Fold this sequence. Notes:
By secondary structure, the chain is α+β, with helices and mostly antiparallel strands. It has helices at residues 4-10, 19-28, 108-117, 120-142, 156-159, 181-187, 191-208, 333-337; strands at residues 30-34, 39-41, 49-55, 57-64, 67-75, 79-80, 94-97, 101-107, 215-220, 224-228, 236-240, 243-249, 254-260, 264-274, 281-291, 296-301, 308-311, 322-327. It has 2 domains: 1-142 and 156-210, Jelly Rolls, CATH 2.60.120; 213-332, no CATH class. The strands form 4 sheets. The chain has a 6-stranded antiparallel beta sheet with strand order 11-12-9-14-15-18, covered by helices on one side. A 4-stranded antiparallel beta sheet has the order 1-8-3-6. A 4-stranded antiparallel beta sheet has the order 2-7-4-5, with no helix packed on it.
Amino acid sequence: xxxxxxxxxxxxxxxxxxxxxxxxxxxxxxxxxxxxxxxxxxxxxxxxxxxxxxxxxxxxxxxxxxxxxxxxxxxxxxxxxxxxxxxxxxxxxxxxxxxxxxxxxxxxxxxxxxxxxxxxxxxxxxxxxxxxxxxxxxxxxxxxxxxxxxxxxxxxxxxxxxxxxxxxxxxxxxxxxxxxxxxxxxxxxxxxxxxxxxxxxxxxxxxxxxxxxxxxxxxxxxxxxxxxxxxxxxxxxxxxxxxxxxxxxxxxxxxxxxxxxxxxxxxxxxxxxxxxxxxxxxxxxxxxxxxxxxxxxxxxxxxxxxxxxxxxxxxxxxxxxxxxxxxxxxxxxxxxxxxx
Length: 340
């Protein structure tokens, strides 16, 4: 059996993270021992968090209209329930131990505290999930037409949310999103063009899970390059499937320099936490704008004043497509005042 830190490091969610962060993740995990026949996850119940299997085997089953169908098997090094760390939706599959099995559990609360201290975890998580969507769409695009069956197929897209082996799932879509599997195929069928909206959905759930309360975030779609004008500790920039993310401390005034390398459509979304003891919330500002090659813009994100998108040279502010504020469940003293 691998040491817990070595196992966590092997998982694609955490593999590129710094060794000190891996150790902190391991310290926050709870060791759980299951006997043969025990349920790690029950269909219809809320998930506690992300499980890593460190020893043993388990099978994934879904139940529909009284009929059970086996989906896949999990073993040492596999993990399950990754989306339950950012939502509390009912689980859509059973995970049952086939022998005595040991797991590490990273709860939703522990994950939220870790991300608030180390936002690189959230960025890596989104990288992995977007990569899985791309992989799933490629499989769907190349899969031969299926023959009609007498009985409706099991909802594999939803069931596989509860069990994602490290390598490959038997399901066409390898995990559950905050929306249904059918919607995933419909909305995210073109990964390149829809990656941004997928990331917006994921980060929205992260904010609601209290995992991003110390950071603001801009998500800008292509065809542009972006550069934060205020740099320093806590500022992280990354490009995922052509979408540019800039993450930085919420108490920082930030301006994002945007330059178009081609004509097209600019899409930008900014998440900005509004910390309040009585009414914590996050504002979400969206911009949609046609741009020409070599256009330069500034996305100005002050601490409290309205966000502005300005084209350099004309100082005419673009009108935001939408601005909304979403309440964040009240922060406990522990999660709001103590880091990990």
